[in-house]
Write a sequence for this structure.
């Protein structure tokens, strides 16, 4: 394994503010050079604290952070050479955009003609050529965001940290900026550590996502694996939506488990790792993989449930059903001719393919 | 159909709707005015009226004109540049009026007024009034002028005295403003400088003291506010109580506690002596030093509070951003953090400066002669020398000075930059 494969390393990192409560519990992560890694989790899960420790603004209570083979626990933030984009941009309000961009170069004692050239290049990079003389207060949210990005990149750091950089933007602008950040990442090849609580953002941008909950990484994997093979019910729920049905494993054969659901129906489902017969489990099915059965569309597994409600969303329609055992199920169906209406409490047959049902541990 | 309907909706209000909405607006405005009416009345009665009276008083002075109206009418004919005294008729009119004043026991008032314009004339007027009181009116009507010129070896023959009467007689006068600026009119009526400068020196000293106090409060207040703004909420709250404590104790107690500290046998001197740092006690009280020290202490909250609230509002990520971009802690603090505190510094400075330039009680108690400020001389003229007009002129000039400073400040920094929290 070369040093490129573990360019940034968190080794058994723990963090506590009051020497009692652990905010980050035993965090381990290796980040490859040039990789785009996202720390995803609800607020208060410890993801921002990890980022701040990497940037050097928070001390590490226990464990070690290593960058490029060198432990950085005792290196001051201004010596780490890490670019950072802050949640509220943190553009210096009393300086023009050009002065903001020049600041990191000036503190590095770069000659002024080089600074001017770099600032011009950097403004061009984020397509804000005409804005150098303006003050941050005169810019829109998206423009500020691009300046903040340019400023964190102008001194060519090998690592760029982003702390919910798109949190303050509206939806359209956010999508545009996601694309922009991905473009810059591809062009410049920096290593990016991105913090967000928005799972869509994490899925579309990252090479790898570390899902945080309660100071612990629940799963760290690529977006596809995370979505399709969540390792526990927290991840399954946090990334996208999921239906949960309680049951018990009857038998396991070649990664396919036979599950006896609490409502008495026997079904088959995919399992990764959980293979003990008689073990209590949860069956997870994504709402877009669950269908209302009809003549043309029936899969290996079926279950009967009572109709509760039908919600019109526009491009899709959401159905809500209730199982006899009390669990609620949701179906996300395309808004086409196949979106039937039901009477309240009508008994409806639902169906899904075996490889779309996933067996998860019940303890989580 | 849908698009067409959308566009054909009337784009303007009907006459009835406009009328209705105007009436509504008017009613709401009237209600708003009623709400603020007590406040407006209060401001008029407690703020605009006193200041207006003060301004008026500084140049409106009818006392002499009320005492000797006839004489003043007669004096209009007199050419003060001629070098001669006014004619017989004027003198006779004056003797008659002075006799009347002596009878009504108001001659002293006139003497006092004229004495201000021409020092030393008071005793002459009082003496003459006493003599005239005993003389017959008919007699005076014939040759009162001769009698007048006989008093005190013919002192009434001095044209300067009559000039003084004529000057004091004008109802509107710039005399007090001239005095307040250490100027006067000579006998020919042109403005000249006074030999001794009192008031300009005092204005200058007040400005200097206010400036020192402002700088000191910035120097002391800045680190303290920074600490308050960055400390934990619990610590910050406790410290804030200490900052506000001076507000809750009487101003007199705070000032007199400085007397206890600084006096010759006070705490500071005895401590220094017992530590053998000094052998003889230092004279710290009743000086400019003690004025500045005590006022800095008293005005410190006015610097800390706006500064604290501005610093509290500065997102710590600015400073962090500067560090992450490679700025060393101290240069980053100076270049990034300090400029952001400017609204607080300027608000605090303006407050402290304006309050301290007109401060009265502390310099009066601990200032001695050296630490007196302009307000103390204003108070002196109101309480001791009974020259309210001069006090009003001095006060008006102080008001003007503050307005000019405020204006300069606005041009340089911009009042809109001020943040009081």
């Amino acid at each position: 394994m070369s040093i490129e494969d573990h360019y940034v390393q968190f080794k058994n990192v723990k963090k506590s503010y009051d020497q009692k409560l652990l905010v980050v519990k035993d965090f381990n992560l290796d980040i490859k050079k040039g990789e785009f890694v996202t720390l995803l989790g609800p607020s208060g899960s410890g993801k921002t604290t990890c980022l701040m420790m990497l940037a050097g603004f928070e001390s590490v209570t226990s464990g070690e952070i290593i960058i490029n083979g060198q432990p950085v626990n005792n290196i001051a933030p201004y010596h780490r050479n890490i670019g950072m984009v802050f949640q509220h941009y943190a553009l210096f309000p009393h300086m023009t955009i050009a002065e903001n961009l020049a600041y990191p170069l000036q503190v590095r004692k770069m000659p002024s003609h080089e600074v001017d050239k770099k600032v011009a290049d950097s403004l061009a990079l984020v397509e804000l050529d005409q804005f150098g003389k303006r003050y941050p207060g005169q810019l829109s949210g998206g423009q500020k965001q691009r300046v903040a990005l340019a400023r964190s990149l102008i001194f060519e750091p090998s690592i760029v940290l982003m702390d919910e950089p798109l949190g303050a933007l509206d939806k359209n602008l956010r999508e545009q900026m996601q694309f922009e950040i991905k473009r810059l990442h591809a062009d410049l090849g920096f290593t990016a550590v991105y913090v967000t609580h928005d799972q869509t953002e994490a899925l579309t941008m990252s090479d790898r996502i570390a899902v945080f909950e309660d100071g612990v990484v629940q799963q760290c994997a690529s977006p596809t694996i995370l979505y399709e093979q969540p390792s526990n019910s927290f991840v399954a729920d946090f990334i996208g939506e999921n239906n949960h049905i309680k049951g018990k494993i009857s038998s396991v054969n070649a990664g396919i488990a036979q599950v006896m659901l609490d409502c008495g129906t026997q079904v088959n489902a995919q399992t990764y790792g959980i293979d003990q017969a008689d073990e209590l489990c949860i069956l997870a099915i994504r709402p877009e993989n669950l269908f209302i059965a009809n003549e043309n569309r029936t899969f290996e597994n079926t279950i009967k449930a009572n109709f509760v409600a039908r919600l019109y969303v526009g491009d899709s329609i959401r159905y809500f059903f209730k199982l006899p055992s009390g669990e609620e199920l949701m179906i996300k169906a395309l808004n086409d001719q196949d979106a039937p209406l039901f009477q309240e409490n009508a008994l409806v047959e639902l169906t899904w393919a075996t490889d779309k049902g996933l067996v998860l541990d019940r303890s989580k | 159909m849908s698009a067409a309907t959308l566009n054909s909706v009337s784009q303007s209000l009907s006459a009835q709707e406009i009328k209705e909405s105007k009436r509504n607006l008017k009613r709401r405005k009237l209600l708003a005015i009623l709400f603020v009416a007590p406040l407006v009345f209060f401001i008029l009665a407690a703020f605009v009226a006193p200041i207006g009276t003060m301004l008026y008083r500084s140049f409106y002075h009818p006392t002499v004109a009320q005492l000797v109206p006839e004489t003043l009418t007669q004096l209009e004919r007199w050419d003060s540049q001629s070098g001669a005294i006014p004619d017989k008729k004027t003198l006779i009119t004056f003797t008659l009026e002075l006799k009347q004043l002596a009878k009504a026991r108001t001659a002293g008032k006139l003497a006092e007024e004229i004495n201000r314009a021409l020092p030393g004339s008071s005793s002459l007027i009082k003496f003459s009034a006493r003599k005239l009181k005993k003389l017959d009116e008919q007699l005076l009507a014939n040759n009162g002028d001769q009698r007048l010129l006989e008093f005190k070896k013919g002192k009434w023959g001095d044209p300067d005295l009559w000039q003084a009467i004529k000057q004091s007689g004008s109802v509107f006068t710039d005399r007090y403003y001239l005095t307040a600026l250490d100027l006067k009119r000579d006998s020919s009526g042109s403005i000249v400088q006074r030999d001794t400068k009192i008031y300009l020196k005092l204005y200058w000293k007040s400005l200097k003291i206010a400036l020192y106090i402002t700088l000191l409060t910035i120097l002391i207040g800045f680190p303290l506010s920074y600490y308050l703004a960055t400390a934990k909420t619990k610590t910050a709250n406790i410290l804030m109580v200490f900052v506000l404590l001076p507000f809750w104790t009487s101003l007199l107690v705070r000032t007199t506690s400085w007397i206890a500290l600084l006096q010759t046998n006070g705490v500071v001197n005895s401590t220094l002596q017992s530590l053998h740092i000094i052998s003889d006690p230092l004279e710290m009280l009743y000086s400019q030093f003690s004025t500045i020290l005590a006022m800095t202490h008293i005005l410190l909250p006015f610097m800390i509070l706006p500064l604290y609230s501005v610093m509290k509002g500065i997102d710590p990520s600015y400073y962090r951003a500067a560090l992450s971009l490679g700025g060393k802690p101290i240069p980053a603090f100076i270049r990034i953090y300090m400029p952001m505190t400017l609204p607080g510094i300027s608000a605090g400075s303006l407050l402290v400066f304006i309050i301290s330039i007109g401060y009265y009680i502390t310099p009066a108690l601990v200032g001695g002669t050296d630490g007196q400020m302009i307000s103390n001389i204003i108070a002196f003229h109101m309480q001791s020398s009974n020259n309210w007009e001069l006090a009003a002129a001095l006060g008006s000039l102080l008001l003007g000075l503050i307005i000019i400073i405020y204006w300069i400040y606005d041009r340089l920094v911009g009042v809109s930059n001020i943040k009081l929290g």
About this structure: Chain A is about 25% helix and 35% strand.
